[in-house]
């Protein structure tokens, strides 16, 4: 009944050292205490862990003595019988006991197979003191991040572009190429925000005019392209470098997007900057000798005097107008006699009359502009003054009353006036005096001069001739027509030889620029129109350049003299590049904004 | 006056000059002037309707910024060759720090302060992450090495491992006579990896699950009311656990400082590559949808 215990330890270089001990006894003990037959210096082993007893020549039994078991071929058990000839591996804590049979002796090889502590195991100094193993490697994450970014922000957008390149329409919703957007599209182009390819059609080809003209079909060019090219100022040194780069990077000049930049924010698109206009108009006279246009480059400092279109010969649907600079002190020939000064006075008879008519007509202490002038529907300009509506409340053309009905002379029809007056004198007699008496007997002397009969019957006798006198009076100084109209004797018989000069009212003085009264509601009328001091209808009451410049300065704030509350005014405030009869684009935008969208329709498609 | 005299450098004496102060802050001065020029240009150049990356100034600033980024990234290659002199690695590193900082100015002006949810702002944001992580790294490099060396007290890293191994062996031997439940506590301390714990443990230096401290506390509770006779093996184990805890404390402070010196690079380097990817996408996208 022999046990052969082989304690195996290893030198630093891994060589085995075996110390054999032979025990002649049937039972041996295993444990941490030194008095055990197999002493395992192992804290995972209890002081008396197990005993090993021989059953016969080959068989042994291993029994745990404490509550802890041991491992046999990987399983934890409390007791096990082993055929030593077949062998087995037991594990107690960090120690391995290999059972075998050598002759009649059961051999037990004892070896520590695990380090006695974690620290005494293998430690790679470089590794344990660094963050390697705690974080994904730098190289790995670098590739991963870079790959992700390229996939999401380069490959996916290009795939989107390739997918819908030939498609007429892209489905709504998110598309990867919107990740390339450099900023929100302007209000008007919001509908295109998911459809980059509406404008960016070909790869590496800058946005072409064709893309714009797909929708903006009616937009016409500013002028003949040849003349446009000739009018442009030659580029300076910096601009030449810019042009060189533009050519190198495939950016043709003169495209819509040069003035109309996009991706500049979600608000309304900004009007083209002043410099785009000044490039040509700043010194166009030199470059385009035959142009009628005067040079302008900044409203505050370099703008020609206004040339309002003044009526020089009134009458008809198309009175003759001529654009005359304010420097030539133009006067307007509109065919009327109308002293504004007289009507706007606060002290004269007109004012007194206004006061008496205050209840009836809503006048104030004196007449003001709005009593006679009515804005048009858009508020931009004023309706023509209408005699019946705007003058007749004071300047009545009444000449007779029958019952409660007032008879008036017809305005605008001299022949009718003459006919009405003649008819009046023919059909009516003078008022019969009550003292004339009835059918009583006349006494001598009743017909004497100065007596009632003389007066009455004299008037009756002279009645027909008075009509011509009245007609003359109406068309002569002090008469109802003459006071306002220019009258001559070139008329025909129907109007008794009198002719009223035709009248024309000017609705728009600035044909090349745009003026909007609605935008100037913060001002009084008199601050621009010197009406209270004007004694003649021929006075041009339109403000000139200097007067506008008391508020309006150049786009960058430039002004010739100090302006208290400057209004920065680029060219686009008054002028259109793609000109038509309507307001400039920027003004339409602004008006639409002020009116909270009510003018939005006009702003969108309002090029009439 | 006395202190000024004392701190004045004696002629001919060469003091250690860190990469931040290299050549009397030469690169700081160069980059400050460069950034100021860019700011002045930004203020003077009139771009309508507002500054953006697509104006001529925007393209110039963008090109400069992109070249800066590529040059800054090249430090990763350059640092592998340590040289001296005018183009020394120290000069290069000094320039890296200050040119990297000036990139904040250049790139921000390039954006025209227009940001959005797009690849362009992504590139800018990644660049800022790289720069800020770099600033954190410079901050760590400026302050931590002295703390690291005062913590080490001239002990090398292998010596720290050896000290742990030695104390473990002693603990193992001393704990042999102990009862099983006490032996299990000591075994817990032995089997726990002193370099274990995740990144947060490493950076914070707090190890709430420390088995050594737990073992020591349990043994103290065990022996609290026992008279100290001097022959009880548990007293020796107690003393050894106290020593192990002290060594662990030093090792963990060392690990924390080392981790801080390293961790910013785990952001700085990978995000740099993400930045270069985003920058490429940014540039390609501009020309693609020209």
UniProtKB/TrEMBL annotation, chain A:
InterPro entries, sorted: FHA_dom, Multihaem_cyt_sf, Multiheme_Cytochr_ET, SMAD_FHA_dom_sf, Tetrahaem_cytochrome
Primary site of residence: other
Positions of transmembrane segments: 140-164
Sequence ranges assigned to domain FHA in this UniProt record: 28-77
Cited SUPFAM superfamilies: Multiheme cytochromes, SMAD/FHA domain
Cellular compartments annotated: Cell envelope
Protein name: Cytochrome c3 family protein
Cofactor(s) listed in the protein's UniProt record: heme c
PROSITE patterns membership: FHA_DOMAIN
Keyword set, alphabetical order: Electron transport, Heme, Iron, Membrane, Metal-binding, Signal, Transmembrane, Transmembrane helix, Transport
Organism, scientific name: Sphingomonas colocasiae
ATP-binding keyword on record: no
Pfam families from the UniProt entry: Cytochrom_c3_2, FHA
From TrEMBL, chain B:
UniProtKB keywords: Membrane, Transmembrane, Transmembrane helix
Annotated TM spans: 27-44, 56-77, 97-117, 123-144, 263-289
Protein name: Ferric reductase like transmembrane component
Protein's organism: Sphingomonas colocasiae
């Amino acid at each position: 009944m022999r046990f052969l215990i082989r304690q195996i330890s290893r030198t630093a270089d891994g060589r085995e050292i075996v110390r054999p001990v032979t025990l002649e006894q049937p039972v041996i003990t295993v444990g941490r205490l030194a008095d055990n037959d197999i002493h395992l210096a192992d804290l995972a082993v209890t002081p008396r862990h197990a005993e090993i007893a021989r059953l016969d020549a080959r068989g042994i039994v291993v029994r745990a003595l404490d509550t802890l078991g041991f491992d046999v071929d990987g399983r934890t058990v409390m007791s096990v019988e082993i055929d030593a000839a077949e062998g087995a591996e037991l594990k107690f804590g960090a120690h391995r006991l290999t059972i075998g049979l050598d002759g009649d002796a059961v051999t037990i090889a004892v070896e520590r197979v695990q380090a006695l502590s974690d620290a005494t195991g293998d430690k790679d100094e470089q590794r344990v003191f660094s963050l390697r193993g705690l974080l994904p490697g730098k190289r790995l994450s670098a590739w991963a991040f870079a790959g992700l970014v390229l996939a999401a922000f380069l490959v996916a957008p290009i795939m989107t572009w390739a997918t819908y390149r030939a498609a007429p329409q892209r489905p709504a919703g998110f598309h990867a190429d919107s990740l390339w957007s450099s900023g929100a599209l302007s209000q008007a182009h919001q509908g295109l925000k998911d459809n980059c390819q509406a404008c960016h059609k070909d790869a590496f080809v800058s946005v072409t005019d064709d893309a714009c003209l797909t929708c903006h079909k009616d937009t016409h060019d500013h002028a003949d392209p040849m003349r446009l090219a000739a009018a442009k100022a030659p580029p300076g040194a910096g601009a030449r470098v810019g042009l060189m780069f533009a050519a190198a990077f495939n950016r043709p000049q003169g495209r819509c997007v040069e003035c109309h930049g996009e991706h500049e924010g979600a608000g309304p698109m900004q009007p083209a900057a002043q410099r785009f206009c000044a490039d040509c108009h700043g010194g166009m006279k030199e470059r385009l000798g035959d142009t009628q246009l005067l040079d302008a480059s900044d409203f505050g400092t370099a703008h020609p005097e206004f040339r309002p279109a003044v009526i020089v010969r009134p009458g008809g649907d198309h009175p003759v107008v001529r654009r005359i600079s304010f420097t030539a002190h133009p006067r307007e020939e509109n065919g009327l006699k109308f002293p504004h000064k007289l009507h706007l006075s606060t002290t004269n008879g007109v004012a007194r009359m206004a006061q008496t008519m205050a209840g009836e007509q809503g006048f104030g202490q004196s007449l003001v502009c709005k009593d006679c002038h009515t804005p048009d529907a858009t508020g931009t300009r004023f309706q023509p003054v209408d005699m019946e509506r705007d003058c007749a409340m004071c300047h009545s053309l009444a000449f007779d009353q029958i019952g409660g009905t007032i008879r008036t002379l017809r305005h605008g029809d001299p022949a009718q006036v003459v006919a009405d007056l003649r008819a009046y004198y023919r059909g009516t007699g003078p008022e019969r005096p009550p003292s004339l008496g009835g059918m009583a007997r006349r006494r001598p002397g009743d017909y004497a001069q100065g007596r009632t009969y003389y007066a009455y019957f004299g008037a009756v006798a002279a009645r027909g001739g008075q009509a011509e006198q009245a007609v003359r009076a109406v068309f002569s100084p002090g008469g109802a027509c003459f006071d306002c109209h220019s009258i001559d004797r070139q008329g025909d018989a129907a109007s008794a030889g009198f002719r009223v000069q035709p009248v024309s009212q000017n609705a728009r003085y600035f044909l090349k620029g745009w003026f909007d009264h609605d935008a100037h509601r913060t001002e009084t009328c008199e601050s621009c129109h010197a009406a209270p001091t004007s004694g003649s209808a021929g006075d041009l009451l339109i403000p000139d350049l200097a007067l506008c410049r008391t508020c309006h300065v150049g786009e960058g704030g430039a002004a010739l003299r100090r302006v208290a509350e400057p209004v920065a005014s680029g060219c686009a405030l008054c002028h259109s590049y793609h000109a038509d009869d309507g307001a400039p684009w920027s003004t339409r935008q602004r008006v639409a904004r002020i009116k909270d969208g009510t003018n939005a329709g006009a702003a969108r498609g309002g090029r009439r | 006056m006395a202190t000024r005299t004392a701190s004045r450098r004696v002629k001919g004496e060469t003091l250690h000059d860190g990469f931040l102060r290299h050549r009397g802050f030469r690169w700081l001065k160069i980059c400050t002037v460069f950034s100021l020029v860019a700011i002045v240009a930004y203020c003077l150049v009139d771009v309508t309707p507002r500054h953006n990356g697509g104006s001529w100034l925007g393209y110039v600033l963008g090109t400069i910024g992109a070249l800066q980024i590529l040059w800054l990234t090249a430090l990763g290659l350059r640092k592998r060759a340590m040289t001296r002199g005018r183009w020394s690695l120290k000069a290069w590193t000094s320039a890296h720090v200050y040119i990297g900082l000036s990139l904040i100015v250049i790139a921000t002006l390039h954006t025209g302060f227009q940001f959005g949810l797009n690849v362009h702002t992504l590139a800018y944001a990644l660049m800022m992450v790289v720069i800020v992580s770099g600033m954190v790294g410079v901050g760590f490099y400026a302050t931590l090495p002295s703390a690291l060396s005062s913590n080490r007290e001239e002990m090398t890293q292998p010596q720290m491992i050896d000290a742990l191994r030695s104390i473990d062996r002693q603990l193992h031997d001393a704990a042999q006579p102990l009862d099983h439940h006490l032996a299990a506590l000591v075994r817990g301390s032995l089997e726990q990896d002193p370099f274990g714990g995740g990144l947060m443990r490493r950076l914070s230096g707090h190890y709430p699950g420390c088995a050594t401290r737990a073992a020591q506390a349990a043994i103290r509770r065990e022996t609290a009311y026992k008279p100290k006779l001097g022959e009880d093996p548990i007293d020796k184990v107690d003393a050894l656990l106290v020593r192990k805890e002290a060594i662990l404390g030093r090792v963990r402070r060392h690990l924390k400082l080392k981790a801080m010196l390293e961790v910013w690079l785990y952001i700085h380097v990978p995000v740099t590559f993400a930045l270069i990817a985003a920058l490429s996408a940014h540039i390609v996208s501009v020309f693609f949808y020209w």
